[in-house]
C-alpha cells in the first residue's frame, strides 16, 4: 500500500478551503444585479385559499414582483413529482395528489409555500411578504400518522381515506402458520420518531435566466444536480436539459434532505425569466428549513416475532403506518417499502416474513429519505424484537442472536434481497471483545455504587445500499436508473481530472476518489482533481445518497481507469516498439518484459497527445475515457454495535457510558474518512434515541419543534468520551464490485437507535420506552416500578 | 444609515449600515468575507462565531453598529503569513470536519476555549463549552480531538 493509495489514512485535500473560510456554498455566491426571494407560507395546517391580494405588498419599497399559483399556471410550470411508483397489494397504483410549486387552491401543511415576493434586498422581500394578504377557509387537519385513515381531514381528493397505498411483501399464509405453531411470540408496538434532517447549511438557490441565449442557470444545494436538471426539464417543463445548467457547489451537508426537488428552487429559476432575466436568490432561514425540508422516519408499527422451543426464530410479522406528510416528495414512496420491509430479515435466518405497509397523508411537511431511509426503521423493529425475545426467553442477547445468524452465503431472504457475503459472528465476537462484555456485571455494580443504573444494548444491523441495479429498481417502480458515470481525463503532462456524477457534501470524495486514481495510475495524489456538481462539466450522474458513491461511483471511475490503462498500454507499446502483451504497468511505470525499456505514466500521456510515435489511424490521439457503471446487486454492510448507558434514577437522565461499533464495509479506501462517517452516523442515531423528535401540535397542527430552541440537536456533550467510543472493522469482500466495497455513510444512523434503547430498557428494567428517551420519558417509565418497590 | 469604522482582520474598514444590520451581514455582504456562516436564526448553532476584541462572539446576534472601533477577527484572519493557525491545522489533521459549514465557527469558538482554559483543558470542559456550536456531520469526536491537539500547540 502506498501512502496515498487504497487503505491509507490520507488527510483530506478539500480541507484547505473549508478551514480558511474559502468554501463556496450557494449563499456565498452573488450574481450581478441579483434580486432576493422570500416565500409567504401557510400559517394553517389545512385550509382553502379563498383569495390572495398582493396589491399593497407590490407597492412596498424595493419589490420587483410577487407571484402565486396564478403565474405558475399561466406559464404551465408542472408540479413536483414522486419518482417511484408503488402499487397496492390489490394492484391499484398509489394515490398521488397534486404538488404544485406554489400552493394552488389549498394549503396542506404549516409552511406550505403560497406566494413568492421578489425584491431588491432580502429585508425588503421579507417585509413585503408580511403585507401579502391571504384569506383562508380553515379545514379540519390531522398531523398524526396513526389517525390518518380514521380522520375526517382528507388531505388529497385522490385518497379518500388518506391512504397512499396499502402494500405488502412476503408470504402471509406461511407467516401466519409459523405464528400459529410458535412456542413463543414476542410482540411490540413500535414508534419510529419523526426527525428533521438539519444539515447545517440550509437550502438555498440562485436562478438566473439569460435572454440572449435563452439559457437558465440554477445554483442549488443539491446532492444530485443532474437529477434536478432532469426533473426541472422533463416534469416542470421549464426548458429542455441543454438549456439548463445546474450547479451544486460546496454543499453543507445533506443527509437525504437535499436529494429532493423542492418548489422553492424551481420557483427561483422560473421567476428569473418572469422578472426579465435578473437572478433570483433564496436562502432558507433555519425556521423555513424546519417547516419545509423533507422530514424523516415517522412510522407506527405493530411487530411480532415467532419462536420455536429452542429459541430459533420462525417468523416475523409487522404492520406499519408510514406518514408521507402532505405531499409525495421525490423518493418518498420507496422509503417505507423497498428500503424498509426488504431489510426485515436483519442478520437472521427467518424462514417466514410478512409485512404490510399503509402509507398515509398527514397535514405535515413531506417525509422522505433521511440518513438510512427505511433501513433504520427496519433495524429498529428487528433489533427491538430480537432483544426483547432474548430477555423473555432468559437467553443472553448476544448468544440468542448468534444462534439465529445467517451463516452461509449467498442467502436469499423471504423479502427480495439476496445477501452476497458477510460474517456476522465475527463482528459479534469482535464487538464483545472490544466492549469487554464479559465484565459488564462488574461495571454495572460499580455504577450502582455511584447511584446509577447501567444497561447494555445490542444492535446487529444489516443494510442494503450502493443503490442500485437499474433494471431491478425499475421493476420495483423506480422512475430512474441508479447507475453512476465517470470520465477520466489524463492531461498531456500526466495530471488527471476525474469528472464524477457523485456529489460530495461532506463525504470526502476529493480525497478518496483521488486515492483510487493515485493507487491505479501511480500518479501523485496532488496531481489528481475530482470535479463534480456541475451539469455543464460532468456528462451525467445520479448523485450521492444511499451510501452509493463508493460502491457505484468509484466503480464507474475504476472502470474508466481500466480503459485508460488499456489505451496507455497500447501507446506505450507503440512508442517502445513492443507488443502490448509484453507491457507491464506497475507503480506508474510501463516496462517491456525482459528489457530495461520503460516509460513513466506522464511520458505515455504526453506521447498519447503528441501522436508522433504511433499510427493515429490505429490508436486514437488522446487519453480520456468514460464509463457508466450499473451495479449488479445492492451491497450489504453489516455489523454489531454495543451501547452501554448509565441512567440517573432521580432525574431520568441517560448518559452514553460507552459505545462500540464493529462494521464490515468490505474494502476501505480511507479508514480516517470511514471512521468519521461512522462517528457522525452514530451521533445522529444517538440523537434520535435520546433527544431528537419532531412534534406537531395535534390541536393546532403547528410545528412545535421549529427552531434549535425546541428541536434538540446533539451537542458535543451528548456523545461518549473519546476513550469510550470504540470503532472496529471486520472484512468480507463485496463480490458485486471489483473494489470489494460496501457502503459506510448510513450504518451509524441505522445501527445506533436500537442499541441505545435496548441499553436503556435493560438499565431500568422496562420492556418498552419511546424515542426520544428524554429524561422525562425515562423518569416516567421508571415510576411504576418505583411505586411497586415502595 | 449609520457610519461605522472598525478593524477586521487587522485592516481598517468603514461603511454605512442600517442600525439594525447584524455584524454577520456586514461581514458577509459589505466586506465579502463569506467564511463566516449563518446556520440558524436563534443564536444556537455557532456557525457565525467571530472574535471581537479577542473574545468569541456570535456575529448573528451582534449589531454592526455595536462594533464601532472594535477589532474583529474572522476565519479568514487567523492564518499568519500563509501559516495556518494551530487550530486550523489540528482540524485538518484530526479530520475534524466533513461538509465544512460549521467549521469556521467551530474553529473560532475552539480558539477561545483554549485561550480561556489553557493547554490542559479537559475533554469534559471542551465538550461543555462547545455546546453553542452545532455540527451535524462529525459527531464531534474528531472536533474534540482537534481542540485537544491544538491546545498543546497554542
Describe what you observe in this structure.
The complex is a heterodimer of chains A (790) and B (154). Chain A is of the alpha+beta class and 790 residues long. Chain A folds into three domains: 198 residues, Aldehyde Oxidoreductase, domain 3, CATH 3.90.1170; 326 residues, Aldehyde Oxidoreductase, domain 4; 147 residues, Aldehyde oxidase/xanthine dehydrogenase, molybdopterin binding domain (Aldehyde Oxidoreductase, domain 4, 2-Layer Sandwich), CATH 3.30.365.10. A seven-stranded mixed sheet of chain A has the order 3-5-1-12-9-10-11, with helices on both faces. Chain A has a five-stranded mixed sheet with strand order 7-15-14-13-8, with helices on both faces. Chain A has a four-stranded mixed sheet with strand order 18-26-27-28, sandwiched between helices. In chain A, a hairpin with a 4-residue loop joins strand 9 and strand 10. The longest helix of chain A is centred in the last third of the chain and has 27 residues. The relative contact order of chain A is 0.12. Chain B has 154 residues and is an alpha+beta fold. Chain B folds into two domains: 76 residues, Ubiquitin-like (UB roll); 68 residues, DNA polymerase, domain 1 (Orthogonal Bundle), CATH 1.10.150. Chain B is built from five helices and five strands; from the N terminus they run E-E-H-E-E-E-H-H-H-H. In chain B, helix 2 packs across helix 5 and helix 3 packs across helix 5. The interface between A and B is large, with 56 and 53 residues.
Amino acid at each position: 500500500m502506498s501512502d496515498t493509495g487504497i487503505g491509507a489514512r490520507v488527510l483530506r485535500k478539500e480541507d484547505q478551503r473549508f478551514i480558511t473560510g474559502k468554501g463556496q456554498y450557494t449563499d456565498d455566491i452573488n450574481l450581478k444585479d441579483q434580486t432576493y426571494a422570500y416565500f409567504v407560507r401557510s400559517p394553517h395546517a389545512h385550509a382553502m385559499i379563498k383569495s390572495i391580494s398582493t396589491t399593497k405588498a407590490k407597492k412596498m419599497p424595493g419589490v420587483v414582483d410577487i407571484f402565486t399559483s396564478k403565474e405558475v399556471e399561466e406559464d404551465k410550470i408542472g408540479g413536483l413529482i414522486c419518482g417511484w411508483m408503488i402499487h397496492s397489494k390489490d394492484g391499484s397504483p398509489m394515490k398521488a395528489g397534486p404538488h404544485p410549486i406554489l400552493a394552488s387552491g389549498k394549503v396542506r401543511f404549516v409552511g406550505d409555500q403560497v406566494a413568492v415576493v421578489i425584491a431588491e434586498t432580502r429585508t425588503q422581500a421579507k417585509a413585503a411578504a408580511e403585507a401579502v394578504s391571504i384569506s383562508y377557509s380553515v379545514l379540519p387537519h390531522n398531523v398524526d400518522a396513526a389517525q390518518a385513515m380514521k380522520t375526517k381531514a382528507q388531505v388529497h381528493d385522490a385518497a379518500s381515506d388518506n391512504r397512499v397505498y396499502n402494500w405488502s411483501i412476503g408470504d402471509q399464509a406461511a407467516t401466519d402458520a409459523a405464528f400459529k405453531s410458535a412456542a413463543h411470540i414476542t410482540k411490540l408496538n413500535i414508534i419510529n420518531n419523526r426527525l428533521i434532517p438539519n444539515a447545517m447549511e440550509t437550502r438555498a438557490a440562485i436562478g438566473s435566466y439569460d435572454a440572449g441565449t435563452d439559457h437558465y442557470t440554477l445554483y442549488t444545494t443539491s446532492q444530485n444536480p443532474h437529477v434536478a436538471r432532469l426533473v426541472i426539464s422533463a416534469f416542470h417543463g421549464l426548458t429542455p436539459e441543454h438549456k439548463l445548467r445546474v450547479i451544486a457547489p460546496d454543499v453543507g451537508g445533506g443527509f437525504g434532505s437535499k436529494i429532493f426537488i423542492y418548489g422553492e428552487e424551481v420557483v427561483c429559476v422560473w421567476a428569473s425569466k418572469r422578472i426579465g432575466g435578473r437572478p433570483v436568490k433564496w436562502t432558507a432561514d433555519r425556521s423555513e428549513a424546519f417547516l419545509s425540508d423533507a422530514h424523516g422516519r415517522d412510522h407506527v408499527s405493530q411487530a411480532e416475532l415467532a419462536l420455536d422451543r429452542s429459541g430459533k426464530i420462525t417468523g416475523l410479522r409487522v404492520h406499519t403506518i408510514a406518514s408521507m406528510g402532505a405531499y409525495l416528495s421525490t423518493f418518498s414512496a420507496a422509503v417505507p417499502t423497498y428500503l424498509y420491509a426488504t431489510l426485515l430479515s436483519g442478520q437472521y435466518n427467518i424462514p417466514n416474513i410478512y409485512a404490510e405497509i399503509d402509507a398515509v397523508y398527514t397535514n405535515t411537511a413531506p417525509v422522505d429519505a433521511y440518513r438510512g431511509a427505511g433501513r433504520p426503521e427496519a433495524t429498529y423493529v428487528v433489533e427491538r424484537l430480537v432483544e426483547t425475545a432474548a430477555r423473555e426467553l432468559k437467553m443472553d442477547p448476544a448468544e440468542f442472536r448468534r444462534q439465529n445468524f445467517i451463516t452461509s452465503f449467498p442467502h436469499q431472504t423471504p423479502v427480495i434481497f439476496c445477501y452476497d457475503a458477510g460474517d456476522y459472528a465475527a463482528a459479534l465476537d469482535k464487538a464483545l471483545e472490544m466492549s469487554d462484555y464479559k465484565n459488564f456485571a462488574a461495571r454495572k455494580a460499580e455504577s450502582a455504587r455511584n447511584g446509577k443504573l447501567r444497561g447494555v444494548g445490542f444492535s446487529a444491523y444489516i443494510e442494503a445500499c450502493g443503490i442500485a441495479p437499474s433494471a431491478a429498481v425499475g421493476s420495483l417502480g423506480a422512475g430512474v436508473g441508479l447507475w453512476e458515470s465517470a470520465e477520466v481525463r489524463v492531461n498531456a503532462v500526466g495530471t488527471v481530472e476525474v469528472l464524477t456524477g457523485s456529489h460530495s457534501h461532506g463525504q470526502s470524495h476529493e480525497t478518496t476518489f483521488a486515492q483510487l486514481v493515485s493507487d491505479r495510475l501511480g500518479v501523485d495524489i496532488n496531481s489528481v482533481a475530482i470535479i463534480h456538481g456541475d451539469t455543464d462539466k460532468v456528462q451525467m450522474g445520479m448523485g450521492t445518497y444511499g451510501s452509493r458513491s463508493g460502491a457505484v461511483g468509484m466503480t464507474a471511475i475504476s472502470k474508466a481507469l481500466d480503459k485508460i490503462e488499456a489505451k496507455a498500454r497500447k501507446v506505450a507499446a507503440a512508442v517502445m516498439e513492443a507488443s502490448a502483451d509484453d507491457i507491464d504497468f506497475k507503480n506508474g511505470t510501463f516496462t517491456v518484459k525482459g528489457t530495461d525499456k520503460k516509460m513513466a505514466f506522464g511520458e505515455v500521456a504526453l506521447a498519447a497527445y503528441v501522436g508522433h510515435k504511433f499510427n493515429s489511424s490505429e490508436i486514437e490521439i488522446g487519453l480520456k475515457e468514460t464509463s457508466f457503471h450499473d451495479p449488479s446487486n445492492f451491497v450489504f454492510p453489516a455489523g454489531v454495535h454495543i451501547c452501554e448507558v448509565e441512567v440517573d434514577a432521580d432525574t431520568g437522565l441517560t448518559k452514553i457510558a460507552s459505545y462500540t461499533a464493529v462494521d464490515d464495509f468490505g474494502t476501505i479506501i480511507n479508514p480516517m474518512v470511514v471512521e468519521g462517517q461512522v462517528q457522525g452516523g452514530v451521533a445522529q442515531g444517538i440523537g434520535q434515541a435520546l433527544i431528537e423528535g419532531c412534534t406537531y401540535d395535534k390541536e393546532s397542527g403547528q410545528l412545535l419543534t421549529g427552531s434549535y430552541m425546541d428541536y434538540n440537536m446533539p451537542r458535543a456533550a451528548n456523545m461518549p468520551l473519546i476513550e469510550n467510543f470504540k470503532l472496529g472493522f471486520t472484512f468480507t469482500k463485496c463480490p458485486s464490485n471489483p473494489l470489494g466495497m460496501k457502503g459506510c455513510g448510513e450504518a451509524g444512523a441505522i445501527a445506533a437507535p436500537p442499541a441505545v434503547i435496548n441499553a436503556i430498557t435493560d438499565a431500568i428494567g422496562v420492556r418498552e420506552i419511546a424515542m426520544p428517551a428524554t429524561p422525562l420519558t425515562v423518569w416516567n417509565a421508571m415510576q411504576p416500578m418505583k411505586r411497586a418497590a415502595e | 444609515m449609520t457610519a461605522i469604522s472598525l478593524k477586521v482582520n487587522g485592516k481598517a474598514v468603514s461603511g454605512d449600515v442600517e442600525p439594525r444590520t447584524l455584524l454577520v451581514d456586514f461581514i458577509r455582504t459589505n466586506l465579502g468575507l463569506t467564511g463566516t456562516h449563518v446556520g440558524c436564526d436563534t443564536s444556537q448553532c455557532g456557525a457565525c462565531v467571530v472574535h471581537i476584541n479577542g473574545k468569541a462572539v456570535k456575529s448573528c446576534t451582534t449589531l454592526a453598529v455595536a462594533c464601532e472601533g472594535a477589532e474583529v477577527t474572522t476565519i479568514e484572519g487567523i492564518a499568519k503569513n500563509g501559516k495556518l493557525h494551530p487550530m486550523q491545522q489540528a482540524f485538518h489533521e484530526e479530520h475534524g470536519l466533513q461538509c465544512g459549514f460549521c467549521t469556521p465557527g467551530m474553529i473560532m469558538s475552539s480558539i477561545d476555549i483554549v485561550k480561556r482554559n489553557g493547554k490542559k483543558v479537559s475533554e469534559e470542559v471542551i465538550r461543555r463549552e462547545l455546546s453553542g456550536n452545532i455540527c451535524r456531520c462529525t459527531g464531534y469526536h474528531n472536533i474534540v480531538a482537534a481542540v485537544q491537539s491544538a491546545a498543546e500547540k497554542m
